[in-house]
Amino acid sequence: MSVMITCPFVAVGGAYDTESAAKRQDEITTGRDMFKTSRLGLPRPWTSPNVAGEMANERLRAVLLERGVSIAELADAIQVDPKTVERWITKGRAPYRKHRYAVAAHLGTDESYLWPEALTREQVASASESEIVTVYPHRWAVPRDAWGRLFAQADEEIGILVYSGLFLADDAGIVRMLSEKAAAGVRVRILLGDPNSSEVAQRGADEGIDDGMAARIRNVLVLYKPIRGRKNVEIRLHRTVLYNSIYRGDDQLLVNTHVYGTPAGNAPVLHLRRVIGGDMVSTYVDSFEKVWDQATPIES
């Protein structure tokens, strides 16, 4: 499949260099296929050329290394020849969809991350729509047991990204559940707003409570004291402009959107569940990780 793009001539020393422009157009339109180049004929950021000029899938290679999974082990798990897996990596070949599903599930990642161009926009949109379980018009409309189920079903990861999240910290049952989950080996990460930050001060002003937001965070730090310093529990302070509060239990999220001038409790909440091929859950999880990486750990 070739992509024809009309490129402007390149100006050199005040004149148009038609030879360079023609050469550049040849480079763009010659031998490009959809899995090696973008729609503009540019190299995919998730691939890199090997010595033969073929595009290797660096994302798949990296995930295998991160998970400690060998090519032979992956091939055995999804019942294909190891040489087939090797071609997916070194030559950037796109597997059949059933194999993409199997690889993504086995490695605990998203099909759309490993093979961004293997799914059409319509397929990604459809899968992402399927990730929406429920939309609540307000946070206070979320049933209390929905919060409990979110954290109770987690076997690997619980994440909380808020400014204060006082309604959770003030619930002794939720705090006890976080403690029990951590004791069972679940990683519990909590991100609170830095009470001394300008971002928290601004959010307090936006919601009409001024210093009340910082006071809530300090109160939450006290309420979380019983689990601070526990194995598998980490609490950090962040200084970001919070567009959404994120509550995670493995592959399920409750996302509290924020609306200017409206308290978080009155803003809508999305209940999301990861679906292979979708990227809504991944978008919010990636946002959580970015905040986590720049946040400051608090002392026990």
UniProtKB/TrEMBL annotation:
UniProt cross-references to InterPro entries, sorted A to Z: Cro/C1-type_HTH, Lambda_DNA-bd_dom_sf
Transmembrane segments: none
The HTH cro/C1-type domain, residue ranges: 60-114
Molecular function GO terms recorded: DNA binding
Protein name: Transcriptional regulator
Listed SUPFAM superfamilies: lambda repressor-like DNA-binding domains (SSF47413), Phospholipase D/nuclease (SSF56024)
Native organism: Planotetraspora silvatica
